[in-house]
Amino acid sequence: MSKAIFYHAGCPVCVSAEQDILNLIPSDQVEIIHLGNDNSKIENAKNSGVKSVPALVLANGNVLHINFGASIEDLK
Amino acid sequence: MSKAIFYHAGCPVCVSAEQDILNLIPSDQVEIIHLGNDNSKIENAKNSGVKSVPALVLANGNVLHINFGASIEDLK
Question: Which residue of A16, A25, A65 is in closest CB contact with B24?
Answer without folding.
Answer: A25
